[in-house]
Amino acid sequence: MLVVALLAATAVAFGLTEVLKLQKSPITGTNIVKVFSPVCKCATAQAAIRFKLRERDVLDVSIIDSNDVVVATIATGRAAPAGRVLLRWDGRDGAGQVLPEGEYRPRVHLREAKFTTVLPNPIRIDVTPPVVLALDVTPLVFSPDGDGRADGVGATYRLSEDARGVLFVNGERRVLTKFARPEGRLDWYGKIAGEPLRAGRYRLAVGARDPAGNVARRTPPVVVRIRYVALGRNRVEVAADATFAIRVSSDARTVRWRLGARSGTAPPGTLRFRAPTQKGRYTLIVTANGRSARAAVIVRERP
CA 247, CA 237: separation in Å to the nearest integer? Predict the structure, then answer.
């Protein structure tokens, strides 16, 4: 008889266990932010805690640390209808102090269902900003003219942690990497709203933003120069019909020049010209990929 009783009790216990397994949890559809920074003063300064209730209930929600100690309370006696529930936690304890870096989990109690659970999704507090450890910017001179030759500048960087790289041009954010990685490259093609910028000097700096929202200190600016075509000097004085030379700098394979009635093409470098035979003031125009540079040529009478 004792054996039969034990077998019967085991069968009942097994049946109850199976019934409990088949019962659906009153909480479903959990979606919780994985990492955030309470001090970033950004959109990720709070952790969003989302889940669904199968039936209406009254909630008590607290945050526990890795030792199962309650460190914050974010809802007490909150009436919630069936459906979606959204709660937010600012990463602070009851005294308003930011909690130490680490992992925390929400604990939810449903008063009417007499159900308590610790949501399995950990929330990590991260208040340490990334650091830009290394930066290399090349080339320092480029021409965004679309000819495929030195059209842009690249900033290769290395960070102290996974983060998205950010490139600033003259203090304005221009490029942001898509993924958070410890190293990468930011390419800028000298354009704003699709339009190439004018020739001149520009200050480039690199920063970073980690998944929690912490922002790195920007690097000291690196000065780069947009140059389409440039002349070594913008004024020449020369005798009539004499030759003179000007240094032409450009990334184009060839440049086109015009001086008085003469014109021609040549590769960039030191170009030699013959002055007009009549004295006067002329303009040397050198063009590369639709961009031009000019120099005044003052022709004197031959001695």
Answer: 15
Tokens encoding 217: 């200190």
Distance CA 150, CA 290 (A): 16
CATH of the domain at 81: 2.60.40.4070
Which of 125, 148, 176 is where one domain is finished? 125
Same domain flag for 202 and 182: yes
Domain with 95, as residue range(s), is 27-125
Examine residue 139 and say whether the peptide bond preceding it is cis (omega within 30 degrees of 0): yes
What is the rounded distance in angstroms from the CA atom of residue 176 to the CA atom of residue 31? 27
The candidate with the shortest Cα–Cα distance to 222, out of 208, 207, 192, 202, is 202
pLDDT at 1 (0 to 100): 52
CB neighbourhood size of 167 (10 A):
24
pTM of the model: 0.81
Q: What is the mean pLDDT of the chain?
A: 92
| CATH code, domain with 269 | 2.60.40.10
The gap from C-alpha 85 to its chain's centroid, in whole angstroms, comes to 31
Paired sense of beta strands 235-239 and 291-300, if any: parallel
Nearest alpha carbon to residue 96 among 132, 127, 72, 61? 72
Residue 145, in any domain of the structure:
yes
Contacts of 226 (CB under 8 A, 6+ apart): 141, 142, 143, 144, 190, 196, 197, 198, 199, 200, 202
Residue 69 lies in a domain: yes
